[in-house]
Amino acid sequence: MALLTPLFAFLYHLPQVYKWLLKPYYVASLFMSVAFLMVRKTPGICEHLSTQREDGNSCDFDWREVEILMFLSAIVMMKNRRAITVEQHVGNIILFSKVANVILFFRLDIRMGLLYLTLCIVFLMTCKPPLYMGPEYIKYFSDKTIDVSDKTIDEELERDGRVTWIVEFFANWSPECQSFASIYADLSLKYNCAGLKFGKLDVGRYGEMSKKYKVSASPLSKQLPSLVLFQGGKEIMRRPQVDKKGRAVSWSFTEENIIREFNLNELYQRSKKLSKGRAERFPPVPEEEEVEPEPKGEESETKKDK
Q1: Mean per-residue pLDDT for 158-174?
Q2: What CA–CA distance (Å, rounded) separates 96 from 262?
Q3: Could you please report the per-residue DSSP string of 98-154?
């Protein structure tokens, strides 16, 4: 049963995974992940490669390469224990496969290692993972107003003290934020109402806001993403928590954890009551009946009769 559950889960999400993997970024990443395997197993190429096998078969892995691949598999399994989305699972496999490819190519031939490492750097600088573009009820904040109707995060949080805000502080370059985007969007679709709203602020783009709300935007930061609950314009709680030394306490951003820690079900029920209270306080204005003007012909005839 323990083996069947992951299998059924994979089959259930297979159409989504298939559609997702067809995107150019992941197609290119997949080819780069299996580059060493293709070189080692391709006839006409593998015969010219060096090997440490006793039988001299250069078209098969030697014992050192097998050790490196086994070590890679163990690391991927450990990392995927904390992964919460399919994107994170595949992303971990791709990342550590590239690392293993760099080691294997350098061990095989330093020129091939330099070439592959250069390709990885160019790919990292030019190709970015696709961002989530699905439905959501999320307001995106900036550090300044663009038009009259737009408000900064400070103005929006202080505008109505009865409204509870959950704000995600994120950065587009962060893989964790990219993986969390679909989960956060799904929560906004389920729980957004007049008294409970969801927002996002890109601290990678607005550095002053990251300092003000004490969210580190460093590439080595463990605070991305950060979820902060605001009530009456004041911060009530955040995840992950930050200790006295400024280090983020490890926390899993699963939908179940967020619902439980932020008590979203109770917040939603209270927020719906706020919506009803607003409707009762401000009843809809009845439409006035339009008075049809009298025809000019009839008005003139009446004057003549008088």
Answers
A1: 88
A2: 34
A3: HHHHHHHHHHH-HHHHHHHHHHHHHHHHH--PPPP-S---EEEE-SS-SSTT---HH
Residues 92-127 as b/e (b if ≥16 CB within 10 A, e otherwise) read bbbbbbbebbbebbebbeeebbeebeeebeeeeeee
Cis, bond preceding 240 (omega within 30 deg of 0): yes
**Do residues 224 and 170 make contact, with C-beta atoms less than 8 angstroms apart?**
yes
Tokens encoding 198? 């969801």
Give 201's pLDDT tier (boundaries 50, 70, 90): very high
Distance in angstroms (rounded) separating the CA atoms of residues 176 and 181: 9
Name the token pair of 289: 């009946």
Give the DSSP letter string of 189-236.
HHH-BTTEEEEEEETTT-HHHHHHTT----TT-S--SEEEEEETTEEE
Amino acid letter, 238 = R
Cβ partners under 8 Å of residue 107, min gap 6: 64, 65, 113
Question: Are 87 and 178 a contacting pair, CB within 8 Å?
Answer: yes
pLDDT tens digit string along 66-78? 888 888 888 888 8
